Amino acid sequence: MSNTPHTLGEEFPGQLDRIHALKASDARFAKLLLEYDAVNDEIHVAETNVVPVTQEHETELRKRRLTLKDRIAEALAESA
């Protein structure tokens, strides 16, 4: 979904080159990015009511996305 909010480019402006380089060199980081994108897509589908979910489930998904975002930020900081 090209209009999905909270893409990595929005969340980490100016760092896409570093994200790409780290993704290419670190399989764990690449997996982390895939997880982030999957959760982000789930949230977008829930928000747009394409697949209705409970408020509790949506909240859990948001918490999971935040945790993944924190882990991505940590990995980027460590690679700097």
What layout of secondary structure does this protein have?
Elements: H1 8-11, H2 16-25, H3 27-47, H4 55-79
InterPro entries: DUF465, DUF465_sf
Protein name: YdcH family protein
Organism: Sphingosinicella rhizophila
Care to describe what's here?
InterPro entries: DUF465, DUF465_sf. This is YdcH family protein. It comes from Sphingosinicella rhizophila. It holds the Pfam family DUF465. By secondary structure, this protein is mostly helical. It has a domain at 32-80. 75% of the residues lie in helices and 0% in strands. The protein is built from 4 helices and no strands. Helix 2 (16-25) crosses helix 3 and helix 3 (27-47) runs antiparallel to helix 4. The radius of gyration is 13 Å and the shape is elongated. The model has no long low-confidence stretch (mean pLDDT 92).
What is the averaged pLDDT score? Answer: 92
Class per helix and strand makeup: mainly alpha
Biggest sheet architecture: none
Beta percentage is under 5%
End-to-end CA span: 30 Å
Q: With helices defined by DSSP (H or I, 4 residues minimum), what is the helix count?
A: 4
Unreliable stretches, pLDDT < 50, 5 or more residues?
none
Helix share, percent: over 70%
Number of strands: 0
Looking at the structure, what is the overall shape? Answer: elongated
User: What letter string, H or E per element, gives the SSE order?
Assistant: HHHH
Give Rg in angstroms.
13 Å
